Amino acid sequence: MIKRKFAMVTxxxxxxxxxxxSACGGKSDSGTTASNELEQIKKAGVIKVGTMGxxxxxxxxxxxxxVDGFDPDIAKEIAKRLGVTAEFTTQxxxxxxxxxxxxxxxxVISQVTITDERKKQIDFTDSYITNNVKIIVNTKNTDITxxxxxxxxxxxxxxxxxxxxxxxxxxLPKVGDFKIKTYDDVITSLKDLDAGRIxxxxxxxxxxxxxxxxxxxxxxxVGEPIKSDMAGVALRKDNVELxxxxxxxxxxxxADGTYDTLFQKWFNETPAK
Length: 273
Hints:
This protein is of the alpha/beta class. 47% of the residues lie in helices and 25% in strands. The chain is built from ten helices and eleven strands. The strands form two sheets. An eight-stranded mixed sheet has the order 5-1-6-11-7-10-8-9, sandwiched between helices. A three-stranded antiparallel sheet has the order 2-3-4, covered by helices on one side. The longest helix has 34 residues, at 2-35. The chain is globular and about 55 Å long.
């Protein structure tokens, strides 16, 4: 009787031990799956996308309050080629990368310029667009035509953007003292420029045209482009499968003409080759 009890205890202990091992093994497998965000996204059927939503024609809310623009169209096309749908969240540009790192969404597509500094925090796909940046002033302004003319002036720029970093780290040391005023959206900065509350801003012409056309701002671009920026889809580090799948989607879009169609739709011209 004692031997039988001992045998039963032993069997029970082994069974429990086996369940523990099984549970541990299951956790390990789950962890492996969790590390592959592409599989998670495909399983959910949705890729969560962060975007600014106030930067037409790149990203904005249309008359139906839907997220629209070149960037969302690129995101939707990538999603389609991954076999999922795109779900958008809008917020100020300065909060997009922190929110990405906090896993509030899977990717950011909002004209995020690819820089070495940002690569320390996040990863990028291959570039999907290159933008030429120019100096923008009020039409009445004849004092500013180049970066050296910024000295002693007030220059507006988007908060947390590559343009802000460029002004602070490259232009300011080179040109000398000028004031930098930051904005959460482009429209407000252009309103201030139109009203004479700032002396200049820097931006690309694709972004300015629809805003100027809609609001009648009296502003103009001057001089030659001061720099060219390449934007990519931003994602968290160590997601090689997701990055590679999006790169393939982008390459296929360019190869089959879909990219050219979207570019023509939003910018009324074919992209430079």
